[in-house]
Amino acid sequence: PAMPQLALAIFCAVTISSLVPGIVGAIYCAWTRRKQRKRTPTYDLNIPIDYNALGIGGLDKELTEIRRRALASRTLSPQEVEEMEIEHVRGILLYGPPGTGKTLIARKIGGLLKAASTKIVNGPEILDKYVGVSEQRIRELFAAAECDQDRQGANSGLHVIIFDEIDAICKKRGEMDNHVNDTIVDQLLAKMDGIEQLNNILVIGITNLPELLDSALLRPGRFEIQMKVINLPDEAGRLQIFEIRTAKLKENNKLDGSVNLKELAKKTKQYSGAGIAGLITMADFKRALGEKPKKKEEKDQNEQNVDESSSLKKSEEKEEKANMTLSKKKTYNPIKRVRHYVAKKTCDALRGD
Ligand SMILES: Nc1ncnc2c1ncn2[C@@H]1O[C@H](COP(=O)(O)OP(=O)(O)OP(=O)(O)O)[C@@H](O)[C@H]1O
C-alpha cells in the first residue's frame, strides 16, 4: 500500500519542481517589466542647467527655449508617455550665422538628455558619387535606433542624430539637374516619418542657409522646432565664453592672475563664440611659441589707436595714408586691424604681460 503513495509523492515532487522555474521566471519577468516601466525619466527639467559646466556661454536664452519647447516631454517616464499618448518632438533645426554655437548646442542636447548615443554627421560626408550610397548612409544612421526600439520598445534609450550642414543634402527638390539630392531628401523624409512609430530618436539639423532647405522637411512632425541661433553674445555672454574657454588654463595654473577677462569681454564687441575661442587658441599658440610681447611704447601706441570707433576712424585714416605711401597694392581692413589688436591683447593678457 505504501507504493502508490510513494509514486504519488514522486509524481507531485517532479511536477512541482518542473513548474517552479517557470513560476519563478514569470515572477521575475513581471517584476523587471514593472521596474522598467517605473524607470525614472531620462532627463529632469526641474534641475537648472549649469551653463558654465555645459561649456556654452551667452546662449542661455536659446537653450532655455529649446529645453522648454523640445525637451520637456522627454522628462516623462515611458509609462506616462504611453498613458498620455505623448508624441515627442522628433526634429530640431538650428540655423544662423557661422560660429554662433549651433553645433555646440546640438552636441550638448544629447548629453542633457542622457542619450544612449549621439551621432554627428556632416551633410557633405553623406554624399557619394555612386547611386544609392548616400541613401544607404542615411538608413544606416537610423538603424541602431530602430534595432533598439525593436528590442526594448518604450524603454529604449534616446538616439540623437545630428546633421551638420544639412543644406548640403536637403536642398529644395526639383531645382537641381541631378536627382541625387531629391532621392536623399526622400530618404530622410521617409526615415523621419518612420520615427512616428519610434519614440527614441531626436534628429537635429544645423544650417547657415535655411532658405535652401526643402520645405517638406520643416513641416510639423519633422524639423518642427526651428531655432534661430543668431545673436552675437553680449558682454555678459562674452565674459561667460572667456571664462569657459580659460577654465582649463586656470585649473592648470597657466593663466596669469593679472588677466582681466572682464576687460577682454568689453573689448571683443561683435565677436562670436567661435571668434573668442579662436582668440584664446591664438594666444595659446603664441605663448607656446614663446613669442615676446612688443615693447611698451609700441604697445601704448596700439592701445591709443584702437577700440573706440572714433579712434578707429583716426587709425583708419592714418593707416590709409601710410598704405598709400608704402604700397599702392596693400589694402587696409579696419576690422582685421581691430581683431589683430584684440588678439594681441588676449595674447598679452594670457601671458600675464
Ligand atoms: N556660445 C559659445 N560658448 C562657448 N564656445 C563657443 C560658443 N559658440 C561657439 N563656441 C566655440 O566655437 C566653436 C565653433 O562653434 P560651433 O561649431 O558650435 O558654431 P556653429 O554655429 O555650428 O558654426 P557653423 O555654422 O560654422 O558650423 C565651438 O567648438 C566652440 O569652441
From TrEMBL:
SUPFAM superfamilies: P-loop containing nucleoside triphosphate hydrolases. Residues 291-302, 310-322 have a biased composition (Basic and acidic residues). Gene3D superfamilies: 1.10.8.60, P-loop containing nucleotide triphosphate hydrolases (3.40.50.300). It catalyses: ATP + H2O = ADP + phosphate + H(+). Residues 291-335 are annotated as: Disordered. Keywords: ATP-binding, Cytoplasm, ER-Golgi transport, Hydrolase, Magnesium, Membrane, Metal-binding, Nucleotide-binding, Protein transport, Transmembrane, Transmembrane helix, Transport. Its EC number is 3.6.4.6. One of its GO terms (cellular component) is cytoplasm. Belongs to the AAA ATPase family. Required for vesicle-mediated transport. Catalyzes the fusion of transport vesicles within the Golgi cisternae. Is also required for transport from the endoplasmic reticulum to the Golgi stack. Seems to function as a fusion protein required for the delivery of cargo proteins to all compartments of the Golgi stack independent of vesicle origin. This is Vesicle-fusing ATPase.
